[in-house]
Design goal:
Layout: E1 2-4, E2 7-9, H1 15-60, E3 62-70, E4 75-82, H2 85-88, E5 99-102, E6 108-109, E7 113-114, E8 118-119, E9 132-138, E10 149-154, E11 157-163
Antiparallel strand pairs: 1-2, 3-4, 4-9, 5-6, 5-10, 7-8, 10-11
């Protein structure tokens, strides 16, 4: 710092000052832009799941409506709607075996098979557009929990991050005592 009269003049600190200024600007850009990148990453994951849904619609002509736990936690009830009966027809073939994959453990869950009845999936000779159908998957030991996520695999098509619905009857309302 040099003084000339009453004015104070600052000299630049040379390369060290420039390095600190660069780091400061990089930090500011990081703080400002990191939320945008985080949102883009989240959107990317959602679009990945959406891609699976789009492929399911395009290849198999169905869309997933919901997935719920039933039978005291031992069965997962997958409901789907037929959009294109011609494309959906193979889904009803017993040779094609859809599988749910628990995203936490990575375990495959197959179609629930009841003694004397066989695989618990709805069969149709002629699927109808707009109609809902079901497939029941076994959930041994209550592996998949409400609020969890699973992946549906039908042949080479995977639909990831399918949420398991939370039973509204079990959730206590504000002001009401828990059951």
């Amino acid at each position: 710092m040099d003084r000339e009269g009453t004015e104070i003049q600052y000299k630049t600190g040379g390369p060290c000052h420039l390095a600190y200024l660069t780091l400061f600007l990089l930090f500011i850009f990081w703080v400002v832009l990191s939320p945008a990148f985080a949102e883009e990453e989240i959107r990317g994951h959602e679009s990945g799941a959406e891609d699976g849904h789009a492929i399911l619609r395009d290849k198999w002509g169905i869309e997933i409506v919901r997935l719920k736990i039933t039978a005291a936690g031992h069965i997962l009830d997958l409901r789907y709607r037929v959009l294109d009966p011609a494309k959906a027809f193979p889904v009803f073939d017993i040779k094609i075996k859809p599988v749910l994959i628990d995203e936490l453990s990575g375990r495959d869950l197959s179609i629930y098979t009841a003694p004397r009845i066989g695989g618990m999936r709805q069969k149709a000779r002629q699927p109808e557009a707009g109609r809902m159908y079901f497939i029941l998957f076994g959930n041994p030991g209550g592996l998949v929990k409400e609020g969890g996520k699973v992946t549906l695999r039908i042949e080479d098509v995977k639909v990831e991050h399918i949420p398991v619905e939370i039973n509204a009857e079990k959730v206590p309302r504000e002001g009401s005592p828990p059951r």
